[in-house]
Amino acid sequence: MFHFLLYIQPTWKYxxxxxxxxxxxxxxxxxxxxxxxxxEWDESYPSISxxxxxxxxxxxxxxxxxxxxxxxxxxxxxxxxxxxxNYRFVRKxxxxxxxxxxxxxxxxxxxxxxxxxxxxxxxxxxxxxxxxSQPKKISEYFLSFKSSLLQESPLISIVIPTxxxxxxxxxxxxxxxxQSYKCFEVIIADQSDxxxxxxYEDWKFPIKLIKQKEKALWLARNxxxxxxxxxxxxxxxxxxxxxxxxxxxxxxxxxxFKSSISAGVTHTLVGHGLSPKEGYFHLSxxxxxxxxxxxxxxxxxxxxxxRQFEKQRMGDGEFGLRAQLAGFNAIxxxxxxxxxxxxxxxGLREMGSWDALRPKNLLAPRPVPSVLYFIRKxxxxxxxxxxxxxxxxxxxxxxxxKKSKGLKWLSWVLGPFILPFIIISVLRS
Length: 429
Fold this sequence. Notes:
This protein is α/β, with parallel strands linked by helices. Helices cover 38% and strands 12% of the residues. The protein has 18 helices and nine strands. Strands 1, 2, 3, 4, 5, 6, 7, 8 and 9 form a nine-stranded mixed β-sheet that branches. α10 links the parallel β1 and β2. The protein is globular. The protein starts with a helix and ends with a helix. The model has no long low-confidence stretch (mean pLDDT 88).
């Protein structure tokens, strides 16, 4: 990939997995003509290698998946490090403030200033491309695909950890009663205090209840996995709502793409909605344990969730990256949707943070320590520093306003006034 992605997307997992056991970058010259039409071959790069990786990046974002006939040879996958190509790449695909940000980072990093200024100016007038404007359309998905896996009716084990959320869990289970696909069991690890056993009576599907004294999310999910009988495990949150074809769409996705992971999309009522990229199939950037179906073989090969993330964040992201590095592609599935209510009580909300960056206490570790553990373990210290530079200033914005562009800029203004508190929080993390 292009080296400057380190500055902009320091924890983007495809900076790591492009040389994994199953390569994911496609070769423009090996694509079908209709697939090439979805991409733009850019001859303005100083080398054909840069042009190939640019096209491969477009394909990755736009949902053209790799296979045995179109993958770039692993011997040909090298990081594009020349400065001119990298400035052109950033200018094409990222907002202008990122272009300026990279230039400042490069100057602060003691790179030759005249060279940096030369290529910064040379690519200044390059027009930004909307990389989401022409995604791959898979019309036959609904129009003609007949899923043999769906007809086989494999047992699906639905995994739900819950903690003091019975009113919301009732709605979540009610949505399961309405599913068009009926061959499933529900495994619930209940950590509530007290546990209301009568709540689990009289549902229209089998429920296996695990009563767990310790309030521990990843232990709960691991316990459910150990007790599940299904070949496929479907992860679900207790404060979620789904459509009646939710299970069916996950199965169809696994079958269509011959994949082991279907990563459903999530609309969060508090904080943010869906991004344009979540409207079509592509290799998923994330793994969300509130909406994902995983074949059991994945756990047999890479193990369960890492309890180093207990009572913290990024346990699902770490699992998703570990699976990808082991060669299991996760397909972002726009038809398996859920609404995440992100309620203020119960669950992780009782463990001290709204998300990875926003603890409830001003002096609490920021980001949540497990986030730095994850980044440093897989991406290294340099990536961790760039992550902090980008994310700590905007973390002072309340979670429900984090998508506000105006408040993002305001966070840089307000940041210096609370800098001592921020430094303490980061050092504690």
